[in-house]
Amino acid sequence: MTPRWTTAVLDTNLSGGWAVARSPEGFLVDDNGPLFAREWLKSQALPVLAEHGIGHLDGEPVYLLELERSVELERCHWQGLRTFMLEGDHTLYKVLGYAAQIGTWAREHRFCGNCGQAMTQVPRERAMHCALCELRSYPRISPSMIVLITRGDEVLLARSPRFVPGVYSTLAGFAEPGESAEDCLIREVREEVQLEVKNIEYVGSQCWPFPHSMMLGFHAQYASGDIVPQADEIEDAQWFNVHDLPPLPASRSIARYLIDLYAARRLGLPEPVLPG
């Protein structure tokens, strides 16, 4: 079966296809969604920083217009990527998630980080090139760890002051240079709740709606320690029984998948599928 969405480096000199427009406020959307006829979108005199061909959706080429700023277009508005993840079609979210990564990279690499000269896109390659000092810059991926800690029928869930009121989720954090994913997991758990874990098991991954973020999902068992929430980072952390869970993250998130997967296994229910 041919996948609906495939990434590719497309020639921007070709005409036709679909396009999405992205600004610091999100993606341009009308009543039909964020996909526009490319030629029409390019005719709107938008403040385009860069254009990149990003792949094919149902066999049709898709391009990204990365904009310097948002503009007002009749019957259109701007919508953040997270909203698409929580509410929209998952395939469309994958398109926009990839577009957001490429757009961030294009915006941040217009000039060489070594000598400051303007960079140019390498034909048929996802790279920016500095002709003066020969530096090449590729899209960056920042791995982060997310883990569900369990103790029999109990799961460790916490909430940040930034969460929706009442919602509890798993622990997470970005990897530091030189760390393995497992090292990151152990450090983040110690920092956020001062617990020790064992039997770390990789479960799955998900592209997250933050710049160049890849969430690596794990399950780990409680080993020792008492919960001590990290000041200014963790508002509350508790053990919850799988029979009595608090309000949880959105169903399409990897955090919710980790929780639902463990609860299903403990309760003998069908296992959920991680959106991919």
TrEMBL record:
Indicate which residues the UniProt annotation says bind Zn(2+): 112, 115, 130, 133
Keywords (A to Z) from UniProt = Hydrolase, Magnesium, Manganese, Metal-binding, NAD, Zinc
**Which PROSITE patterns does the protein's record reference?**
NUDIX
Binding residues annotated for substrate, in chain numbering: 82, 125, 138, 206-213, 255
What's the top EC group for this one? Answer: hydrolase
Listed under subunit, the entry gives: Homodimer.
- Its protein name is NAD-capped RNA hydrolase NudC
